[in-house]
Amino acid sequence: MAKKLWYAKRRKINIEKNLIDINLLLEDVCEEVSIAFNTNVEFTWVLPKDELMIYADYNRLKQVFINIIKNAKESIAGKGKVVLNAKISKDNYIITVTDNGIGMDEETSKNIGTPFYTTKKNGTGLGVCLSKEIIERHKGLIKYSSKKNKGTIVNITLPIKST
User: Angle at CA 159, nearest 5°, toward 156 and 160?
Assistant: First the structure.
């Protein structure tokens, strides 16, 4: 009960939107997190080459993408792969992070994004919850699809024309 009370009483995350190049942000994130990958887990990314300016909070989105890629990496016990793809589709920018990690069972999939829900030994259960809020504050969507022992796909859709 205290957990729900905490979430209900806390303030919304502050978002400060500025005109940013989303492709440059993702390139920075990918280069930064690739250093943390070991030889067992391969990390690759494919981004559009042209700059794409959107109104967004650079630091908050960086936080989201690092969290999602980190979760994908941590879901892989042995050899594996994490791939980030980004593309423009109509008036949206779609970022997909795919891993071939342990995946999620139905119970975990149902609870993903619930404050304090975690399957990690030392997790807080706030990373996905806060990431979801940040994306929603950008008028975007975040969607998880997963199969146990097959992997997880995270789709993030951000509007291109958002002020």
Answer: 120
Residue 109, pLDDT above cutoff 80 = no
Look at residues 158, 145, 147, 161 and name the one whose alpha carbon lies nearest to residue 65. 158
Question: Taking a C-beta distance cutoff of 8 angstroms, is the pair 41, 80 a contact?
Answer: yes
Query: pLDDT tens digit string along 40-58?
Result: 899 999 999 888 999 999 9
Report the C-alpha gap between 119 and 85 in whole angstroms: 26
| Spatial separation of the C-alpha atoms in residues 156 and 143, rounded to whole Å | 7
Tokens of 27: 């390139």
Structure confidence at residue 6 (pLDDT): 47
